[in-house]
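To: structure subgroup
Subject: Chain for Friday's discussion

All,

I'm putting the inputs and outputs inline so they're searchable in the archive.
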Amino acid sequence: MGKRRKTRQKNQRRKWLKFGLVLAVLTLLTVFRDHLPRELTDALSEYASGAFQEGSGLEVHYLDVGQGDCTLILCDGHAMLIDAGDNDKGTAVQSYLESQGVTELDYVIGTHPDADHIGGLDVILYKFDCQTVLMPDFEKDTRTYDDVIQTMKQKRYENTSPRTGETFELGSAVFTIVAPNGEYGDNANDYSIGILLQHGGNRFLFTGDAEEASEADMLENGMDLKADVFKAAHHGSRTANTEEFLNAVDPDYMVISCGQDNSYGHPHAEVMNRLRIMGISVFRTDEQGTIVAHSDGTEITFNMLPDESWKAGEPTN
């Protein structure tokens, strides 16, 4: 834990040092521009401009959709959405995307056909132009799943069933498919599409509701799963987020998406204890609302401090 804290403190010091340097350059340009050689002013202007462009970087919005999942990713004018919450969340997700200036989506990922992940997806697919739709090769005989399929047919969207190891570009970021890796019978959770998103030196991992079997297959596949930020699998459930998997990912931060006082008891006490022992900082939508991470390719900052309650859920059914 001490080592992680020292690393974060060092990163913050570098961030403020860089900010101070850029500020000094801008001051120098403002006060002494007419007295400096043209070549020097051009070089200083290029440095300051590049520093601010780098700072705009990648944004990962972990939306508070109650007991469900929804993540908006923005990079260099491009946008992608992973899941869209439950059936009653589609319009709210649409409004959030519009508030962020999103008019079209490069990618829409429905990790797996459970209602708390794809319930609002039909609204998003209908309201926005979507270039590529990715869903796993697993169907579910539900009204929610059929709504998504019928909307895709109406908009003439073709589903892309991703293959492990396949990569896609999103502006200056790239994401790689890391799951699913096998057949899992009727367990929809383990068919979840998992992606590893990389922006410069920063890495974000998303695995939907993938449980122990899928996590084991990801490890067996031998891909480098290390990530700075991991969105907890299955809302922080004990059926996922195994010690072996977390050791392989080795995240500095975890984001848990779950509903306040949800009946499942998410996040489970076993997982919260595991994260605390491992020294991983935790953010959670049930206690903090929508969480936004910003990457400049070197450092990651959040719109709030990590949660400190370490409170586990209490199942009611």
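Points worth raising on Friday:
The mean pLDDT is 89.
The longest strand covers residues 173-179.

D.
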